[in-house]
Task: structure prediction
Amino acid sequence: MSSQYYVPPTSKWPIIAVVVLGLTAVGAGSLMSYGSGLPFLLAGLVGIAFVMYGWFRDVVNESMGGLYDAQMDRSFRQGMGWFIFSEVMFFAAFFGALFYIRVFALPWLDGQGAKGITALLWPDFTASWPLMNTPDPSIGGPNAVINPWTLPLINTLLLVSSSVTLTVAHHALKEGNRPKLTQWLIVTLALGFVFLVIQGIEYVEAWTQLGLTLQAGIYGSTFFLLTGFHGVHVTIGAIVLLVMLLRIRRGHFSANQHFAFEAGAWYWHFVDVVWIGLFLFVYVF
Result:
């Protein structure tokens, strides 16, 4: 580890990341709104993969080159802490929208509360959640909702189990037991992969059999917004853990110096905690 604080050279990756994220957002928005924009979305996703590969490569080379010192390690920890805090706020906004709709907006439209006069807009509307019958008859709700005690429960058990297996792998790294570390990290990745497959099956069932789509009123919108963005985070977390596995196979990390692995574990545990909130407030209650 270097005895001097390392100042990285000017990096091209942040500006490239901004461009490809913009392409992804424009493509996804156009695809959902107008049925077009797929080329932009694909270009953005390929660009994100390129940025992740290049940025990861540069940081790994700097780390393995012995350029980082204790102060840099503290900087990484603070940066990761702030990043996860920003992700907490990201999902807090989505959960806030869900609670606002359920606690305030729908009761107001049903004549309750301080703004109950809004019931004059749709006098025949009766508030309920999940919202099967929307206030405006021209906007249809879902035909049915997903039973939380089937696929969602399985996915909950998978993610909770993955946090346990990742913790076992982390302890194995601290003990210097690399075979055990590799084994349990592979198990964690397998659990995450199965989670994504089951979520895909759930989406197909919801869209084709239950009428639960993005056009199925506010319930459909909030369902796919919350669970979809969480699925993206699981995918990103799995990619990070896969990179950690590849680095471990190449002999990287030691019992005392392995913050990259630790940061990936922080992120994965955060994603798991968010899913528990989703399971309770999107599927169960």
